[in-house]
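Input set for joint prediction.
Command: fold jointly, output tokens.
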Amino acid sequence: MSIPNRTFFYIIPLPLIIMSLFIGPSDVITSQDILAWMQNKIIQAPSLNQDKLEMVEAIVFNVRLPRVILAFLIGSALTVSGNSFQALFRNPLVSPDILGLSAGAAFGAALALVFHILPLQLTAFVFGLLAVGLSYFLALTRKGVSTVSLILAGIIVSGIFTALLTVVQFLTDPFKLQTIVHWTMGNLHNASWSKVKSSVLPILLGIIWLFIIRWRMNVIALGDEETRAVGLNPEQEKIMILLPATLIASASVAVAGVIGMVGLAFPHMVRMMTGPDNRKTQPVSIAFGGSFLLLVDDFCRTITSFEIPIGIFTTLIGGPFFVYLLKKSRMVFRES
Amino acid sequence: MGISVKDLSFSYGTTMVLHNIELNAAEGKFTVLLGKNGSGKSTLLKLMAGLLPCKTGDINIMGKDIRHLSISERAKVIGYLPQFHTAAFPFTVEEVVLTGRASYVFAVPGKKDMDITNEAINKVGISHLRQRPYTELSGGERQLVMIARVLAQEPQVILLDEPLSHLDLSNQIRFLALIKELIMSGLTVVAVLHDPNIAFMYADDFMLIKDGTIRILSGDERPWDASILTDLYGVHLETMPFRERALVIPG
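tokens >
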């Protein structure tokens, strides 16, 4: 199979986003209606009656468009975050899920959903950061951090935060419980403009920052001493990667729950196409990550008569992929 | 100028590794540090490279106190070649060498950085490896890539920690010829070498380190004297005269 040119990934998002607006379970409105509505919006041609127009607007603009935007944003965020964590830890097998970040952010977000004391995005970020920090320090030995110990530490930290999340669920009332359960599955079906609004700023800021420092991640990926020798402070650089990578992943979890394995599998797919140079992987991660998650979401909402939560879908596919990487890496990457 | 070290001591925790080191490495010369494993050579080199904090004593590089240089200023003066290195990602040789430009680049390297990178790759003689993944290279080839990375840094002083250890004989000779070339172009090179024979054949000056102190030679002593070397390495060694200096052989 030939690998598509990079420009392909920069061109594909827009047509894909527009196409996705036409997809959905509603049979009340047709593609013609949507086209007519778009025409009306762009050139103000009165081509539909007022009732129809309002209905199309309600479905396409208030239901589908925020969902499409959210899917794209989260796909980009998780891919860029995963790619950045892999450079930061010099470890192609880490991701927001494996480091415990997703479970931590999910717990933080659930706290905010139940108790309404602190803002959702803030608690998700704080607990996401706490989880990554815990995983790292649990895995840290005098010889550094090995792949296997980091993965094991991540499992422990994930386990702890998942248990805490269950405690929150246990203590909460049935109505809120349902919201939390649906949301932790990793779900885009209740996407709304308010969710887009709450996540768009942290995600865009984090992605822009990680895009700007993309080349420095190449330097960091070579090692601490190697980084210091060429004139960058590795500790400082790592924080500059860690904070935005945590921010965008936890912002995603805060609005859509845990969409598992995206942060691990997507960066690998990107690297298979571009090679490891982050000057290429970072922009392609933004375009490809967003497009591909959007495509997966389009499948989720059309493939069956009911909606499959996207997080379940990605984890079912991504799980075996991780096992494959782990098997393969045993031959390529040595423990140090 | 060059490098001058005054009254430098260093300890890892409570273990003293270096005691009152006094050393001068002249500008435009090739100075070699000789000594046993664990004598403190690598630690001294790391201190001079600014990779370990200099707490007691003074290190001046090209007339500047190393403590007054920021990490990025230091990288423009000092190039340091670490011992063996591996990478987790299969970056190409060109991408690895390009990272030497880090202290000159804000976001993404430009054309000038690419030109300097290519020049460094050509100078080391690895242009045929340019697009190869670093992870697939042999230890010796990696060593050459890392020295190209140091050259891309455009330093005035180059510090090498056992640069020959993974090279075969032909690459060792090529590498030493390259060092000679760098010296000719005005650079100062300080290296830790295992093999005193190679040191005596190629280097200008010698620093003998034993148990964390510099072995100071009196007027009529030479670094290639059998008695000095026997004391330095702790095994019986003999020498035979060779090109004004000597060859070392086990006694």
